[in-house]
Amino acid sequence: MKYIAPMWLPGGNLQTIWPAMVSARSLEQPAVAPYKRVRWVTPDDDFVDVDYTHVELAEPQKASKQPLLVLFHGLEGSSSSHYALAFAKIAQQRGWAYAVPHFRGCSGEINRAPRAYHSGDYEEIGWMLSKLKAVHVMAGGGALLAVGISLGGNALMRWAQEAGSTATQTVQAVASVCSPLDLAASGVAIGQGFNRLVYTRMFLNSMKPKALERLALNPGLFDGKALQASRDLYEFDNIFTAPVHGFKNTEDYWLRASAKPHMHRIHLPALALNAVNDPFIPAWSLPQPTEVSKSVTLWHTAQGGHVGFPKGKFPAEVMAMPEAVSGWLATHLPM
To answer: Can you give the pLDDT at residue 64?
Structure first.
């Protein structure tokens, strides 16, 4: 991906914050097809909500060949996140169906089960993809493509690694965007300096209330007072994320959930896009060509921030990254 940030938006933090707060407003208009929502019952008798769009083509006989683009959102994201709306617009332009499965607790309603979601949630990813594949095929649809943003991208890559040579039975190609593929490196970085003051505080302000709602539904699940006192993601993960999802502690979670150590096991076409100036993904932690399989393509841009990639004159737009990623994914569709 060839990308150059606007001169008036220098640095990773501005390239992260501005697109999410300002540039994305251009996407909140009728030009993006409205979502329809369906609720699925999970194998553990909980639920996930999936928002999707469909494109009514002029020639009905072509509708059955419509590919489906699946987007897995980032930490505390949703189908209304700026990047999700940008990919919705791209899918609409390309004539693709589009779906955003929400991780548990991110669709606007707290889930019943104790579990939430995490960076290595490949089993949940696998179940969602299989369900989407079955529904799409039953409707006469075409191939599936999947993109994961930040946390969702790491989890998607972990699924590709665990699925191995069987992954292409479900998805044609996958892409991760600004994903913390080395969770320990990113976990430390986001807990320091400006990152701690801004990004960590933003995430915890959303995550803590949801965790406490789960505690109210499942008394004794974790130490509520300790969670309320947590000041960074390391402490939050140690109290809630790790033990609730079967990990010993934060270190065990970050180690076992990271995709980077297993990227040599990926057999289907996979793209990993990261900006070198991402505020909380250290450049030194990004995977290198010698650490991944031949099926993996690495795009390391000098600029872009964290899921930002603003482009153009003031106030800028956020379509450069979705256009590049969807273009790469399109090259792997069946002829």
So the answer is: 62
* 213 and 86, same domain (yes or no): no
Q: Are 141 and 132 in contact (CB under 8 A)?
A: no
Nearest to 109 by CA among 43, 37, 44, 53: 37
State how beta strands 296-301 and 144-149 pair. Answer: unpaired
pLDDT at 60: 45
Catalytic residue among 278, 285, 326, 332: 278
Residue with tokens 């938006």: 9
Give φ, ψ of 52 to 5 degrees. -145, 160
10 Å CB burial of residue 107 (0-12, 13-18, 19+) is buried
Task: Please write down the HEC assignment for all residues of 260-299.
Answer: HHHHHHCCCCEEEEEECCCCCCCHHHCCCHHHCCCCEEEE
pLDDT single digits (tens) 220-245: 999 999 999 999 999 999 999 999 99
CA 326 to mean position of chain CA atoms? 15
The residue written with tokens 């999970």 in the block is: 42
Q: Give residue-wise pLDDT tens across range 152-183.
A: 999 999 999 999 999 999 999 999 999 999 99
306 among known catalytic residues: yes
Does residue 31 lie within any of the structural domains? yes
Q: Could you give phi then psi for residue 24, rounded to 5 degrees?
A: -65, -15
In this structure, the number of other CB atoms found within 10 A of the CB of residue 209 comes to 12
Domain identity same for 302 and 247: no
Residue of 26, 119, 150, 176 marked catalytic: 150
| Residues in a beta bridge with 157 | none
Is residue 164 located within the same domain as residue 89? yes
Q: How far apart are CA 296 and CA 22, in angstroms?
A: 33
Residue 6 covered by a domain = no
Q: Is 176 an active-site residue?
A: no
Q: Is 119 labeled as catalytic in the residue annotation?
A: no
Q: Mind listing the pLDDT tens digit for each residue in 98-155?
A: 999 999 999 999 998 999 999 999 999 999 999 999 998 887 889 999 999 999 999 9
